Amino acid sequence: MKIDPDSPIDLSAQIAKAIRDAIISGAMPVDERLPSEAELAEQFDVSRPTVREALKRLAAQSLIRTQRGATGGAFVNRLRFEDAYGQQITTSTLLLSMNAVSFETACEARYTLERACAPLSVMRRTADHLATMRAETYRQAQPGLTDEAFCASDVAFHRALVDAAGNPVLSYQLAGAVEAMQPLMNMITFSARSRERIVGLHAQIADALEAHDASATDALLAELARYTITLAQDVIAAKNAARAAN
Q1: Burial 27-39 (b: 16+ CB within 10 A, else e)
Q2: What is the CATH number for 179?
Q3: Are residue 93 and residue 185 in the same domain, yes or no?
Q4: Are the C-beta atoms of residues 202 and 140 closer than 8 Å to each other?
Q5: Are 202 and 137 members of one domain?
Q6: Which residue stretches of the chain are H helix?
Q7: What is the DSSP pairing of strand 64-67 with strand 73-76?
Q8: Is there a contact between 161 and 121 (Cβ–Cβ < 8 Å)?
């Protein structure tokens, strides 16, 4: 593992990247103990505070864990998909906001991914997945539910649908699509949407999953996508018309 002391990139960042690359390549396997701070400082020819900052960066990414005691130190962590959901969601949210992705583009991506996942969900859904979807559908139908609570329930419903596929790689990839894009779509369309229609579609989707009906599930998700896009187009058109009038 090497770093470039003449590089403008922060030394601790270079050290963190070198160790991360070694972990990813398998050169440093899971549960292996990293060299001590003093050993790393000597290896990279830097100060111990610089090494300590690099280790903090790796710990923040859940790539290493620290243990106290005589047999303690820093160890390569086994990163689980669930541990990386937060980073995926944050990255997706930043990409959407910073790059001004159009509503249609976000909606297309989000529903295309979910519809690709649905056939597996139809085959593998469990009673717990169905119970979650039913509970969220019931919650969404309650009078007086705030827009924020409805949005959170909407996300929970679709996460249960995705997780029902029983594929952690898909769940990870779709974490950003559902938990970053869905709130964005809800934020734009909440003033115009019909909760009754959404709740009705959600109930039918749960029914189709329970019946192992892949074609019906796909058709219902497609209908929900069309409805969402139409709502957004109407809302945006109304806002543009209001601006033009002023």
Answers
A1: ebeeeeebeebee
A2: 1.20.120.530
A3: yes
A4: yes
A5: yes
A6: 11-25, 37-44, 48-60, 81-98, 103-124, 127-140, 147-163, 168-176, 182-189, 195-210, 214-245
A7: antiparallel
A8: yes
CA distance linking residue 103 with residue 234, whole number of Å: 12
Q: Based on the fold, state whether residues 168 and 97 are members of the same structural domain.
A: yes
Contact 158, 186 (CB under 8 A): no
Give helix 195-210 / helix 214-245 axis angle, nearest 10°. Answer: 160
User: pLDDT tens digit string along 120-176?
Assistant: 999 999 999 999 999 999 999 999 998 888 888 988 999 999 999 999 888 888 877
Query: How many angstroms separate the most distant Cα atoms in the chain?
Result: 73
pLDDT tens-digit map of 174-228: 877 777 766 666 666 666 778 899 999 999 999 999 999 999 999 999 999 898 8
Which DSSP category does 192 fall into? T
Write down the residue that tokens 């559902």 correspond to. Answer: 178
- pTM value > 0.70: yes
- What angle in degrees, to the nearest 10, is found between the helix axes of 182-189 and 147-163? 150
Check if the beta carbon of residue 161 is closer than 8 Å to that of residue 205.
yes
User: What is the number of domains present in the chain?
Assistant: 2
Q: Which of 51, 76, 101 is the last residue of a domain?
A: 76
